[in-house]
Write a structure and sequence with these properties.
Helices cover about 25% and strands about 30% of the residues. The protein has a domain of about 120 residues: Hypothetical upf0131 protein ytfp, CATH 3.10.490.10. The strands form two sheets. It has a five-stranded mixed β-barrel. A two-stranded antiparallel ribbon has the order 6-7. It has five helices and seven strands. It is an alpha+beta fold. β4 and β5 form a beta hairpin. α3 packs across α5 and α4 packs across α5.
């Protein structure tokens, strides 16, 4: 797993400069998959939140973390339409630059996401009610985007996928379990999980 550097050069040429907050301000990151349960950095706040206009989907081929080029797996992205409940993670100002560098190394080796700061609504009653958070959106023009996969093929890829971070099915199960722990109901993910874990050819 990538580690957070002690320091980094945040210049106008840095790829994350466009989503960095103003100097001295904290950064909010919206987690909807593994960033919820394995962010890799310390967050001073973890807040249930709602992003409108995008939904959580296994719409990105994984050739590294949960699959290989020969036998790809699938990982989550934010795809257009609907809404998504997840976690807002607050990064204190002194850690913003190294955390953004870490996130780019972790999430953007193939530039499969478009990273934007979007309005996300807190669901804890906190103030401000809406914050602008760093969101990783699936790029529909990227070769690894696969949002149009049929259900049976999606199930097969997740069952068979194994990468440097382990089995694709474990990634799905960990995400579903964490959503349950948070009280978030994601019907599409639950249905996919049932098909992967309990479908034909599986015991139990």
């Amino acid at each position: 797993m990538s580690s957070i550097p002690d320091s980094c050069d945040l210049t106008p040429a840095a790829p994350w400069a466009a989503v960095a907050p103003a100097a001295g301000e904290d950064l909010w990151v919206f987690g909807y998959g593994s960033l919820m349960w394995n962010p890799g950095f310390e967050a001073t706040e973890r807040v249930l939140a709602l992003l409108k206009g995008y939904h959580r989907s296994f719409c990105v081929f994984s050739h590294r973390y949960r699959g290989t080029p020969v036998r790809p797996g699938l990982v989550l992205g934010l795809d257009h339409g609907g809404s998504c409940r997840g976690l807002l993670l607050r990064v204190p100002a002194p850690q913003v630059d190294p955390v953004l560098a870490y996130l780019w190394d972790r999430e953007m080796p193939n530039n499969v996401y478009r990273v934007r700061r979007l309005p996300v609504r807190r669901l804890d009653g906190g103030c401000p009610a809406v914050v602008r958070a760093c969101c990783f959106l699936a790029d529909r023009n990227h070769g690894h985007y696969c949002g149009d996969l049929e259900g049976a093929e999606r199930v097969r890829l997740i069952r068979e996928g194994v990468g440097i971070k382990g089995a694709n099915a474990d990634y799905l199960s960990a995400t579903v379990q964490h959503l349950r722990d948070l009280g978030i109901v994601d019907t599409a993910l639950e249905t996919l999980h049932d098909a992967v874990i309990g479908g034909p050819g599986r015991e139990g």
